[in-house]
Amino acid sequence: MDQREFEIQPNSDPNPSTTHVYHLALDIGGSLNKLVYFTKDDDHFVDGEAEISPRNTSEKSKGSRRNHPVLKGKLNFKKFETSKIDDCIDFIKTMKLHPGGSRQQENPGSQPISIKATGGGSYKYADPFKERLGINLDKEDEMDCLVAGANFLLEVVDREAYTYMGDQRQFVQIDQNDLYPYLLVNIGSGVSMIKVEGNGKFERVSGTSIGGGTFWGLGKLLTQCKSFDELLELSYQGNNKEVDMLVGDIYGGMDYAKIGLSSTAIASSFGKAMSDKKEREDYRPEDMARSLLRMISNNIGQISYLNALRFGLKRIFFGGFFIQRHPFTMDTLSVAVNFW
Which residues lie across from 40 on neighbouring strands? Predict the structure, then answer.
């Protein structure tokens, strides 16, 4: 399997002279800062105004219990490391993405403009956005946004949810009358597990501090990688069997059939490091990255399964940049959930 075929290709930056930015919003997390903005090109404008037809305003999403207008345009996504928040601010300023961007530059004393933002960073980094862009971050609750967004996607967008196992992706047909309740597992720097019972009805029931931030932080210490993407790419080149202790290593290459453990099952993540007469430098960075990715994914998958079992939930939806278009991570989560 070529891992690269699943990678997200970043949208090309819009040309300010031919596109019009309508909305900009931010999710500033502990590890990554995600930015989304909606653009329409000149083909959708008449005399500088958005082209609105009866079809635009009356066409609704099919199969949803709620009506949603269909917008003609493009959602653009960007991500930045949160520790490099100035890169995000520079991008917004250069592309004039914030509403009234050019006016703010010409009239720095004009009334500040608000944009929607969520995540802890919307509080931590509010001042730089106001000082450099004249923007007030209008803060929205992180969990409210997360659940509302997940419900919207599951109710409205076709081919949004899918299973992934054994290198095979299969889209799931969502029965709108049988969607709730479900467990939403959001994998960010840490992990939140939320029982969703309907629109506006949810409860955070569990979580774990071992998430994407753990992968990045420990991976950086073990491999000297400088970015999340670099670490993830490195992990695809590794072999965790060089670092992990497998059932077969304990049972002389045999399965432990009596309790259903194959010889290739991981008995102890990084377990070989305790018995091998090797130092850290003797292990390949890519093997350590692979072992780390598998350890964290297995842990999240098993905790998710146990919480679904605890609350009698028959569906688990995983989300977050940690798994987005990352086939090995998705496959490991699926194996962990289905193991039992």
Answer: 20
pLDDT in tens, 32-49: 999 998 888 654 433 333
Whether residue 261 lies inside any domain: the answer is: no
In the predicted structure, residue 213 carries a pLDDT above the cut 80: yes
Q: How far is CA 27 from CA 88, 236, 240, 330, in A?
A: 12, 27, 33, 23
Q: 101: domain range? A: 3-140
Q: What is the DSSP letter of 180?
A: -
Residues 158-184: pLDDT tens digits?
888 999 888 888 998 888 889 999 999
CA-to-CA distance for 148 and 152, rounded, in angstroms? 6
154 with 198: CB under 8 angstroms?
no
Angstrom distance (rounded) from CA 110 to CA 183: 45
Amino acid 10: pLDDT: 45
In this structure, is residue 37 part of a structural domain? yes
Helices vs. strands in the chain: H and E counts, helices first? 12, 15
3-state percent breakdown (helix, strand, coil) of the chain, nearest 5? 40, 25, 35
Tokens of 180: 């709730």
